[in-house]
Inverse folding.
């Protein structure tokens, strides 16, 4: 039975069910409700974890790294400035191949300071070697934590993951979410038992340095493991579907894709608004569809190219911008469709919490039909 | 009781001949024993001991970043506690990683009171990157970023008092030690490890390459540091100084003359005012910690 | 040897690096003068000086870097640094 619950609390409950042994987190808007809820669970004996109230996000992820190395399932959550502070540690955790799962309540990066949603924070770490999942709604935000731990801890993967869900829009919104039972999750997610850990019985040195004779090979192996995780995502998603009915086996998901002439591509909660807009456009006879990207790293190049092969044009919605260039998702989509002849138009939208409405989606479709793209959408020219 | 005959730091590491830090690593591990997890910061010790695939560490060891060893150790301690395991956790970090870039993490870890031991091997500069000044660099020492020159006598600031800072965090046991007194060092390490809570041992580890002396003098120079009062070996139990090593004090000049990093105090011209200022530091240490052996006059 | 996941290793391979090749001077031990105090073994930064069952101290020349600390610290002056013959 789905219950109406605030996104952050649904995520906290999902994390609880995953039985992390060590949690290290630092408060930052809009993730605070998650870490507060988890602290309360620990204080009331509902979650048997060691909760480290670290002195910064940098230390939060560092503590998770240490705990993971010693053999514990660990968890952290952050956003925006906090994630930026973790930059160095992110590359370190991934390169050392520790399967930490971290919730990102997506928020814009300063300067200028903003507490509101966009996806610049997690997207800016797309090079770091972490898996990246993006949730459309709070059900996905919840379920993706189970998928993430299961995939990350697979011996062929051993990589960390961001589970991204839009700050405020999802984190602070009440939506119906079906929570699974502890017995369900225990069936799906086995105990974390890494073959290699810090252990006096089998001493290993972790985090050695690599000379030029070895470094490229380590990076290759990491890249390969990240790309190959697509298969593990598929298997885990299929099992989740068999057990619980919801399908996470694919990295992209189509909506009204089959005969669509214009296909929108987007990640996160904007997909919900887009689907509503598409329903209205379809009712008027417009052939529009959506391809939702649920996994951004590894990037689903082949899946995406296959799904978009029949479209006349693509309109990519980017809640981020690689300053001096274009939106990150648009660049990846253009790369995936290179040689296909299908035009790809990118739109920078929703930055810093600027509201995205159904009429914006419709206007973007109209712009794409006119061949006008690669721009900021919806600027308030009167303030410029 | 730890078996102090065990060699837990393997031969084949790439430390300079006569390296104080390598000796410190060996002795610390003898004091700690096999049931130990070591968390290292980036630095000389980490670099000379773990070029993939060669590692000298015969205990479980982890290196993450330059500044986060205390935070990583916090996570390790937490994890081991939840798993009901008995391994002791020690951090091994240089002075740069400890006094400067690691301050955030060390303060947080000590404030939270994790049960671990932090060992700082103090060679008084950023040695691995080429001998740059750190918060542990002594007054008037010449380093590449605080060089002696026509307008400068070298490093302008005294050593940051890390032991006091960590005692102020409520550390139950804080100690200074030196590779000059190996038994004392090993005992202090063992004591720190067996004291519940966050403990700190700062080990003086002279660097022949960085300070400018021949490797065979490493122990002798470490002894002179103590005999002149520029380094004091002591313990702090719950913040109160106890068990100080007493000496028949030698003038600081005897120590300064042995190292190229202080040569500018003697050549081309003898700098009496600077030498006096350094003597004053030693005299203050002597008074503060009570290190002078009072010889009875006949 | 397959590449380790995440740049990690078990102990052992450090011994492949025979640092004895660094030496210019070699410590020569006069066992007659030795008082078996064990100082040399304690302060060797390589940990390459071993003690036999009958208290004879010998450096492992495969790894001895010839730093001279043992010779300098030996209280009985039983160790002498001699130029290595090539």
């Amino acid at each position: 039975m789905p219950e109406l619950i605030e996104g952050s609390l649904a995520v906290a409950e999902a994390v609880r069910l995953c039985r992390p042994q060590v949690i290290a987190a630092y408060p930052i808007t809009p993730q605070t409700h998650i870490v507060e809820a988890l602290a309360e669970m620990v204080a009331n004996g509902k979650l048997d974890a060691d909760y480290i109230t670290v002195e910064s996000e940098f230390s939060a992820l560092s503590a998770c790294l240490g705990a993971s190395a010693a053999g514990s399932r660990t968890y952290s959550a952050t956003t925006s400035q906090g994630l930026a502070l973790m930059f160095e540690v992110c590359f370190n955790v991934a390169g050392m191949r520790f399967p930490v799962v971290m919730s990102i309540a997506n928020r814009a990066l300063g300067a200028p300071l903003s507490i509101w949603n966009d996806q610049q924070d997690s997207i800016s770490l797309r090079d770091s070697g972490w898996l990246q999942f993006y949730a459309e709604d709070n059900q996905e935000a919840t379920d993706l934590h189970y998928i993430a731990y299961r995939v990350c801890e697979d011996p062929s993967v051993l990589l960390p993951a961001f589970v991204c869900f839009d700050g405020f829009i999802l984190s602070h919104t009440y939506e119906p979410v079906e929570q699974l039972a502890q017995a369900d999750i225990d069936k799906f997610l086995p105990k974390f038992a890494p073959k290699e850990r810090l252990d006096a019985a089998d001493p290993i040195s972790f985090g050695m340095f690599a000379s030029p004779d070895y470094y490229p090979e380590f990076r290759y192996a990491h890249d390969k493991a990240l790309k190959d995780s697509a298969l593990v995502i598929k298997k885990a998603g299929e099992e989740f579907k068999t057990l619980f009915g919801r399908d996470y086996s694919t990295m992209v998901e189509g909506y009204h894709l089959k005969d669509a002439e214009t296909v929108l591509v987007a990640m996160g909660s904007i997909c919900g608004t887009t689907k509503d807009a598409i329903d209205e456009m379809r009712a008027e006879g417009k052939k529009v569809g959506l391809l939702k990207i649920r996994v951004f790293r590894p990037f689903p190049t082949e899946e995406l190219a296959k799904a978009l092969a029949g479209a006349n044009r693509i309109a990519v919605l980017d809640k981020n911008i690689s300053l001096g260039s274009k939106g990150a998702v648009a660049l990846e989509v253009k790369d995936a469709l290179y040689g296909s002849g299908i035009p790809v138009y990118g739109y920078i939208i929703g930055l810093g919490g600027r509201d995205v409405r159904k009429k914006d989606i419709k206007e973007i479709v109209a712009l794409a039909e006119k061949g006008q793209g690669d721009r900021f959408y919806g600027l308030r020219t009167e303030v410029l | 009781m730890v078996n102090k005959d065990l060699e837990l730091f393997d031969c084949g590491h790439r430390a300079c001949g006569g390296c104080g830090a390598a000796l410190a690593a060996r002795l610390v591990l003898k004091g700690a024993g096999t049931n130990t997890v070591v968390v290292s910061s980036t630095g000389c010790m980490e670099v000379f001991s773990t070029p993939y695939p060669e590692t000298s560490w015969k205990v479980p060891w982890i290196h993450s970043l330059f500044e986060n060893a205390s935070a990583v150790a916090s996570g390790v301690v937490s994890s081991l506690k939840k798993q009901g395991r008995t391994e002791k956790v020690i951090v091994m970090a240089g002075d740069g990683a400890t006094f400067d870039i690691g301050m955030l993490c060390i303060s947080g870890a000590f404030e939270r009171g994790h049960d671990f031991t932090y060992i700082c091997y103090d060679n008084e500069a950023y040695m691995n990157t080429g001998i740059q000044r750190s918060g542990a660099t002594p007054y008037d020492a010449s380093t590449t970023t605080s060089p002696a020159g026509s307008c400068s006598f070298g490093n302008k600031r005294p050593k940051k008092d890390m032991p006091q800072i960590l005692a102020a965090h409520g550390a139950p046991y804080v100690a200074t030690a030196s590779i000059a007194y190996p038994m004392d060092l090993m005992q202090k390490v063992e004591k720190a490890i067996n004291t519940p809570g966050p403990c700190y041992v700062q080990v003086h580890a002279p660097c022949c390459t960085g300070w400018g002396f021949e490797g065979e003098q490493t122990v002798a120079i470490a002894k002179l540091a103590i005999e002149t009062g520029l380094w004091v070996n002591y313990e702090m139990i719950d913040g109160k100084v106890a068990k100080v090593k007493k000496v028949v004090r030698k003038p600081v000049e005897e120590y300064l003359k042995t190292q190229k990093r202080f040569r500018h105090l003697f050549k081309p011209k003898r700098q009496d005012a600077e030498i006096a200022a350094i003597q004053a530091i030693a005299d203050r240490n002597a008074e503060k910690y009570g290190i002078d052996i009072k010889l009875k006059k006949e | 040897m397959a590449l380790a996941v995440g740049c990690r290793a078990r102990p052992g391979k450090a011994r492949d690096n025979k640092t004895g090749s660094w030496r210019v001077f070699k410590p020569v031990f006069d066992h007659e003068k030795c008082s078996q105090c064990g100082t040399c073994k304690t302060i060797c930064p390589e940990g390459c000086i071993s003690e036999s069952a009958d208290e004879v101290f010998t450096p492992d020349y495969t790894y001895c870097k010839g730093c001279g600390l043992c010779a300098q610290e030996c209280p009985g002056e039983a160790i002498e640094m001699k130029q290595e013959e090539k």
Q: What stands out?
A: Chain B has a mean pLDDT of 97. The interface with chain A takes residues 34-37, 39, 46-47, 50-53, 55, 57-65, 68, 70-83, 87, 104-105, 107-108, 111-112 of chain B (CB under 8 Å). The domain at 20-289 of chain B is CATH 3.40.50.970 (Rossmann fold). Residues 272-289 of chain B form the longest helix (18 residues).
